[in-house]
Amino acid sequence: MNNGWIKLHRKFSDWEWFNISEMVHLFIYLMLNANHEDGEWRGVIVKRGQIVTGLNSLHQKTKISNQTLRTCLKRLEKTKEINIQSTNKYSIITICNYDNYQLDQQTTNNQTNKQLTSNQQTTNKQLTTNKKEKNKENDNNEKNNKEVFDFSFLEVEYKEAFETWIEYKKEKKQAYKTQKSLETCYYNLKMISDFDPTKAKQIVFNSIANNWAGLFKPKAETKTKQDEQRNYITKRIFEITGNNQ
Q: Which of 50, 133, 161, 206 could hold 201 in an S-S bridge, CB 3.0 to 4.6 Å?
């Protein structure tokens, strides 16, 4: 178990993600396990404020599901709380403002009350400045996209077609506003394409070419199916009528 302690300011309760328990759980775990001084791990330099980890390791330590972890990490990156450098074996997560959150911990009992007060005021000022900058950035983000979407539900074979459709909607200033509406559109595409990725791509490009607001099957295909249904009904009526004569 790691020795020592971390500082947690009261203003932490004003954090924009504070009302999402998994976000608080994950961020505090990262703060508790980040290096408090530069070090080395298997020949890799790990600086103060960094942690070497992976998705499975985070899941085991926090018991947060992998999908939720992906969403939380994306949110923390989006608001510049962390930076992630990934390899095929591990990831190095950097807490961007670690020094602002955790002042030099080599202060000892000989530190005076005056120094503590001065450090605390500096921290408060830095936290206030950071909060204002993040609020300004979040206001700009909201103008472009009111929700940070999680695209982990996309399957590889449909990814290119669906992302093409999303970009088309953004260009028309008709971007989806909620995670639910985004996923509903995706599953509708799979359904009307009869779960065929090639046909899904054709539907997307055909809908864009026709400047449609939604995804629809080509009219020729729809008419063919309607004709098949009519022919089937006509045949059944003929058979029933013939049997009764």
A: 161
